[in-house]
Amino acid sequence: MNFDFSPEQKAFAEQLRRALQKASPLREARACLEGSSRYSEPIWRELSELGALGAAVPEAFGGSGLSSFELCVVAHEIGRALAPVPFVSSIGLCAQALMRFGSDAQKQRWIPGLAAGRLIGTAACAEGKGELTPERLQTELRAGQLHGRKLSVLDGLSADLAIVVAKDPAKEPVLCLVDLHAPGVVRRPVESVDPSRPLAELVFSGVAAEPLGRVGEGWEAFDDLLKRAAVLIAFEQLGGAERALEMARDYALQRHSFGRAIGGHQAIKHKLANVFTRNEVARVHAYWAAWALATDAGELTLAAASARVAATDAFAFAAQENLQVHGGIGYTWESDCQLLYRRARLYALVIGSQFAWKEKIVRALETANAA
Amino acid sequence: MDFEDSQEEAAYRAEARGWLEANAAPFARRNAELKADPCARLQVGKAWQALKARAGYASITLPREVGGGGGTPLHEVIYRQEEGRYGLPTDFFGIGLGMCIPTIVHRGTEAQRQRYVTNAIRGETVWCQLFSEPAAGSDLAGLRTRATRGGEGWVIEGQKVWTTVAHLADFGIVLTRTDPTVPKHRGLTMFIVDMKTPGVDVRPIRQLSGETEFNEVFFQAVRVPDENRIGNVGDGWNVALTTLMFERASAGKGLGFAGSPEILRLARQVDLGSGPAIDDQRVRERIADMWINEQALRLLSARALTALSKGEVPGPEQSINKLVEASHGQQAAYIAMDLLGEAGALTHAELGDDWRKIERSWTWGAAMRIAGGSDEILRNIIAERVLGLPGDIRPDKDIAFNQLSG
């Protein structure tokens, strides 16, 4: 039994943690919040130099040829640092999709740039309110040209390329690959709850696009893509939840009321013990999903959905209770509580809300416990 | 990262599995047949324990010199997993071999080790742990059972409660107050007591579930020789902490609560008005919520095994195990009962033997939120020892026990 990251993976985490601390991620996140940048270019460059972005990309495509365990480590540390970088869009969604469904030519063309951080990728899925279904999908790939509107797209303004979920003229869902600098792409920034991880609207009017993967298997591919990205997002969420607990703990030791540090009052102690409990539940589910992702285990569908649900719950709870422990000061613009509170909510919604992911859990359980 | 045994672990598991295959079946069968007769079941349990001891599978982590298996905590867990498949009468020995005997091995005298340890490991004696009292539960150090010097030894007066297997026990370890003139933690002393000593009166407690697993134990002028003292006079609190450390180490064995297989089966059978309940989104969301805790328990135990496998002490994640598990029992039972609608109020007498697991999750879930450290005490432990938050204000801390009010 060895349900843990390896010593080398832990050393990599430690190295990332130190590098991220030095890069003042909270200041960078605040810069995004104030509208002066869309993501932290210095941190993105740093991650690239450390080999973090291409960790799981084969050496032939410019990566380090490690495994998705290392990707999970990277996501975890980005989450802990609250670093405002397009990791889950570019690597979790776009690079993973290309590695999985791309032709050799597509991989050759795009993956080295993504692995080096020279290019930023994303996935464009949702089309407005509610959950995307094959029936409600409007965006269409017709004779190699894409038509439609995607709202909202994570890092849609910064991205150079996107995996777009569309349908073909026969209404068969298909994933396609789009160069976002091509003519016919219109991007619009949209206001959202967490400007440190900005969203955009993308409108495609006859944009050149090529299919990714086999026609007729588009929805399965989309599902597969989401669950793999969900594992990395869960690690970012877990990191954020840990950070929120630390912040709350530190404040509870420093702030005094009724004659002692508020962390000595059971109302606060028990609150933070509950946060710790949910964080640990999220941690074991995330680790399980990391194992399933790296080994392509049959449980991946269930493990990824479980990790997603547990991490969403833990991050939301930790961020909300961290703000609560801070009291009024936690509700100010200057406080860092808002950075966590915003990130927790955004990440609870990108790639679909708890409604969708809990449903995925139960479907997987039904399969596992066939009638 | 993997969930596989190491080579050495796999070899140990294979050996244990082979030994159990060769030996366990008749004992498991007798145990099932004698379900209603604890005394007869105890005899089967004693015979099973003796057989285990000869093979080195009893008290696996205690040294061979005292009759243990000379193995590691991981061996113990692996053996327990394998033994757990059979339904064997091991329940009489959990407290004694899990807590009392390790305390004697670590804190007792050489004479006590000689006299008590090996025969307990062989199942010849049953032990109970006499700590909690009616007025001292979470605040254990506030206990009132007195031990005073008398003749050659000590005289014990008082009352203990929630004492598992006391009605069958030969011996117990009892935490007493020997000096009420000092603050509460400092005036305690631990003794071994022969449960057949005159003045020891064991009365079963009927629980909410209708079962009787715990007892009240009354001490009226019970004489205990000084040679039965464990540790120094006044050092009982530290000795008790040793015992409780072993309690935590043996926790997390899995309480056998209902989970997704049972709930899915029920949800497919019953109709909530618009077809099978399994198709109802309200039901599906509750199943997903339950699953997160259910699976977390398996994964937490994999984390603990990993630590043991590396020769480390399981980390803070283990302190949340019981918090999650007890509530999970209640959560699973509520879903099952709600699925049946009004019929959910019926018992296994109407609903069949399968329903016992749901009832057990409902009743024992409530018990386990209290036993072995209540939810509230565990949250304090997490807050203080894991998160480093300050201890509670303790108005009684520096006050002599006999000066306390209330």
From TrEMBL, chain A:
Q: Which InterPro entries match?
A: Acyl-CoA_Oxase/DH_mid-dom_sf, AcylCo_DH-like_C, AcylCo_DH/oxidase_C, AcylCoA_DH/ox_N, AcylCoA_DH/ox_N_sf, AcylCoA_DH/oxidase_NM_dom_sf
Q: Where is the Acyl-CoA dehydrogenase/oxidase N-terminal domain?
A: 6-117
A GO molecular function term, named singly, is:
acyl-CoA dehydrogenase activity
One short Pfam name that applies is Acyl-CoA_dh_N
For this chain, the family text in UniProt reads: Belongs to the acyl-CoA dehydrogenase family.
**All copies of domain Acyl-CoA dehydrogenase/oxidase C-terminal, residue ranges:** 216-354
The record's keywords, sorted A to Z, are: FAD, Flavoprotein, Oxidoreductase
Say yes or no: keyword Flavoprotein present. Answer: yes
Under SUPFAM superfamilies, the record lists: Acyl-CoA dehydrogenase C-terminal domain-like, Acyl-CoA dehydrogenase NM domain-like
Q: What is this protein called?
A: Acyl-CoA dehydrogenase
Q: Where are the transmembrane segments?
A: none
The cofactor named in the record is: FAD
From TrEMBL, chain B:
- Say which family it is in: Belongs to the acyl-CoA dehydrogenase family.
Q: Which residues form the Acyl-CoA dehydrogenase/oxidase N-terminal domain?
A: 6-124
Q: Which UniProt keywords apply?
A: FAD, Flavoprotein, Oxidoreductase
Query: GO molecular-function annotation terms?
Result: flavin adenine dinucleotide binding; oxidoreductase activity, acting on the CH-CH group of donors
Instruction: List the source organism.
Output: Vineibacter terrae
Q: What cofactor is needed?
A: FAD
Alphabetized PANTHER family for the sequence: ACYL-COA DEHYDROGENASE, ACYL-COA DEHYDROGENASE FADE34
InterPro entries cross-referenced by the UniProt entry: Acyl-CoA_Oxase/DH_mid-dom (IPR006091), Acyl-CoA_Oxase/DH_mid-dom_sf (IPR046373), AcylCo_DH-like_C (IPR036250), AcylCo_DH/oxidase_C (IPR009075), AcylCoA_DH/ox_N (IPR013786), AcylCoA_DH/ox_N_sf (IPR037069), AcylCoA_DH/oxidase_NM_dom_sf (IPR009100), Mycobact_Acyl-CoA_DH (IPR052161)
What is this protein called in UniProt? Answer: Acyl-CoA dehydrogenase
Domain Acyl-CoA dehydrogenase/oxidase C-terminal, chain residue ranges per copy:
234-387
GO-annotated cellular components: plasma membrane
Flavoprotein as UniProt keyword: yes
Instruction: Give all residue intervals belonging to the Acyl-CoA oxidase/dehydrogenase middle domain.
Output: 128-221
